[in-house]
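ok so i was messing around last nite and threw this chain in just to see what happens. nothing serious, just curious
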Amino acid sequence: MKRVIATGTFDILHPGHVYYLEESRNLGDELHVIVARDVNVKHKPTPVLPEDQRLCMVRALKPVDHARLGDLEDMFRPIEEIDPDVITLGFNQHFSEEALVSALKGRGIDAEVRRVGPYSGPGYAGSRRIMERILETRCRQNE
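result:
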């Protein structure tokens, strides 16, 4: 069985997230998703939705076989436990593929790292853009 891991914050689910998870699932037999803990999100604003809600939403998605929250202290611990064949990165995730492969090897994890390309379909494919649209269409009406 070929196990794939996808990771992310998954704040305000959108078609780009679904595309990333579908493409990740297509690379193996079983998709495990690691959802970032609130306290570990440091590269962008704090998520709008709490981690338990984000996890609940990801678990409900068809391509996802297993989903869990990341580790509070060691991002590699869940990866070691799952022992994946492939780890996918979203097109806009701020990881160096080479640095990640090196860190994985240092932990004895022999997994292929693949970057999934951007979603190009219709609709909004970014949490930030969705929030901007909400502000434009709902919050500014009362000004």
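not much to say yet. Residues 3-142 form a domain with the Rossmann fold fold (CATH 3.40.50.620).
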